[in-house]
Structures
1.
Amino acid sequence: MDAEARLVELGIELPEDSPPAGLYVPAVTSGDLVYLSGSGPARPGGGYVTGKVGTDQGGTVSLAEARRAARLTGVQLLTRLRGEIGSLDRVVRVVKLLGMVNTAPGFTNTPAVIDGCSELFIEVFGEAGRAARSAIGVAELPFDICVEIEAIVQIRP
Amino acid sequence: MDAEARLVELGIELPEDSPPAGLYVPAVTSGDLVYLSGSGPARPGGGYVTGKVGTDQGGTVSLAEARRAARLTGVQLLTRLRGEIGSLDRVVRVVKLLGMVNTAPGFTNTPAVIDGCSELFIEVFGEAGRAARSAIGVAELPFDICVEIEAIVQIRP
Amino acid sequence: MDAEARLVELGIELPEDSPPAGLYVPAVTSGDLVYLSGSGPARPGGGYVTGKVGTDQGGTVSLAEARRAARLTGVQLLTRLRGEIGSLDRVVRVVKLLGMVNTAPGFTNTPAVIDGCSELFIEVFGEAGRAARSAIGVAELPFDICVEIEAIVQIRP
């Protein structure tokens, strides 16, 4: 796995991670699995992408914007993962994602939103980045972020 | 475990799986655990059972219909599990279910819905099919399916 | 880990667990991980804390009450964990929490609610109680409980 080299090719710089918004840690490693806390769409310049997804349903975030926000969420997950394991080259497989979309009532195309994160992971890790997944619409997310994703990642020692 | 024989006794035929609705795979195996993607109530004749659950709360799907839909969701999970591991006889234990119900506002009997899946798993795997579980009401599900369930299953090599 | 001694110091008595509200078990152990079913804020005198969280948003449960309810939920998780493994002194690490808040529309401070459970776990297990976590707002919870939390805990044999 040459994930770190891929990141450079893709022109992606992982930013500083923001501190947890509560009594938790960004990641816990147990055996060869890393459990990553629910992460959000941190803007490169600071702040998060917020609002309800689904402009046809009265929300303020379009599907295209939400998909980009899911990619930003993927960047935060990678930041936290590297912070936990040192180098993304240790990744064996992205095992599982739980994608949660802050949906306006009636917006149901949640898989297309979470694809923004999955696409990034496939670009970085190849087919090892194509995980098992659920993509659901939830009532509210912390501080009104428009998407939150948690992940389980298998690593080598 | 004679789960395959039980399926025959129960008269259950596992259908073809539908392709994933996004950039994910139906299942990932890591060590002796299989992580199954969130699955839905695929009708035997095609299509999914859709709508909000709770006819007394303005929804279009009754509790009884939702429970049957959760059983159909269980069938899709078994289909994907067999596709991943070859034979259901390799199952040691259904470890964990996360059941998500597309609730009409005010419908709170989500455990009775997800019992439709758990009942199937107990019929097929015996007490090894009785998992740890959460059963929650979510705001929206992909393409308005009425229930979605993800699972973690322990297998033998 | 002297978690049992800490419980005594904190004056916390773990009550009898209530039976599962459906076809599931309170906990499943797989390898060195215990998967705890979604648990709720059981009152010491019986019954659960119910209602939508966010009194400024039309709910009936304040943030302070919800945080105390999350602590009660933590007590139920510890009860089920001890029931599964015999002694909390076997705990190596609280790996992952999924905290689900029964939010009134517009209440987004879900991390502060789930902190009520995390704080308890840190009191009992020290830094090993500080887990990876997601804290989300869901549409409905079983029987209208105001918070539900599921957990993965690593134990020694």
Note: The two ends of chain A are 14 Å apart (CA to CA).
2.
Amino acid sequence: MLVGMTEPRPRSVTSKALAVLGTFDAAHSRRTLSEIAAATGLPLSTTHRLIAELVAWQGLTRGADGRYEIGRRIWVLGSLSAVSRELRAVALPFMQDLSATTGENVHIAVLDGDHALYIDRISGRRAVPVVSKPGARLPLHATGVGKVLLAYGADELRDRALQRLPRLTPLTVVDPKRLTRQLDEIVAHGFATTHEEMTPGSSSLAVPVFDRDDRVAAALGLVTASTRRELARLIPAVRLAGRGISRMLGSTR
Amino acid sequence: MLVGMTEPRPRSVTSKALAVLGTFDAAHSRRTLSEIAAATGLPLSTTHRLIAELVAWQGLTRGADGRYEIGRRIWVLGSLSAVSRELRAVALPFMQDLSATTGENVHIAVLDGDHALYIDRISGRRAVPVVSKPGARLPLHATGVGKVLLAYGADELRDRALQRLPRLTPLTVVDPKRLTRQLDEIVAHGFATTHEEMTPGSSSLAVPVFDRDDRVAAALGLVTASTRRELARLIPAVRLAGRGISRMLGSTR
């Protein structure tokens, strides 16, 4: 993703430094000076100076091959964010229990713009390969946690999402009417299921997590191999874990 | 910690913006505008403008009570750092297994200046309360993981650490000669143990984690209630997990 193309060219010095950091994402975790300059649209000399300041501050680190990556200091700062300090810290023990009990991968995600942002994952013993790395953003309409966030989200979010339903596998639900019915059922029943809509061979199950204002703060999901037939049997366990996290967050729902 | 007192007053615009972020730490995860201004030594108006740019970029978030905290965007960036992307991702499954097998709290830490920086923790079912939150920095001389990092660290690090051994509990080892003997034994035997040196009632056990250059990249630790007598019985399991992580990192040691 070229930041210079998707965001206005940075004007202030601060916004330029932040634009340098913003060129890093899951698909670009290690970048050269010239890649960073191209992505920000800033001159090489300016980019070089900003990078030097960020390296001195340990916000960026330079590898032996000359590529830059996000430094430890940013990671430490990130661990202070509410998502890490509150949600993740509260959810992790419940996620461990759910993974240990079911043997499956368990993850938690929050709404981030029009995507599901994955906060953390616990790998189960039966573990199928999953795409939900912490920090990854995945589409709302094709994932269990995404459908939950969409179902309980604002009307405008739902309207926007229904206008653009890219097909990711042959089984992705791309018909707005069918997805609308699914979203209504999710709210009615309190859980979402998907079947190979994001990744062939994987099915998922997800429930909402409520905060102290009884708003949906996150979605808790479990991913299993589609060959495991008894997905429905896992629903009570996932609901129980979701309720446990909600209660710890102060929900009385 | 007042940054204005411990770091030179920021000069460039970039360093000023970074100084604003740098006022946040584990003890100050939510701060007011005036606290941030005082901590950076910057005028209120400058601080206000920098904060506005950071909020617009989602690097800071403003709570309902007017306090600022680290935003989700910094957390997402931090998840791209090597510590999170490589070490944490590789270590977590081994840590889950070790915690599930022993029922104890398991954590992993890296050397960060003269402290142990805790990267992650898995809570065991027998879980004693521990101080090792992700992002927390703890002294090297009083923790199991810290002693491992110190024992395998550079001579200068050891010299510096031995000059300052604050007593944290009645059992903290504050005699440089005694600690030197312990550090030599840790290298000789490949593991460290502590007994109520950081937290009364808690004992710990830690082993080194080696990277592909066979340097110590991290320390893996287990914390248990001091009343659990058989700490020595857990040594093989912790060593096995440490070796597993080392092997996944490319160590041939």
Note: Strands of chain A lie at 30-31, 60-62, 68-70, 105-112, 115-122, 137-139, 192-195, 202-210, 216-225.
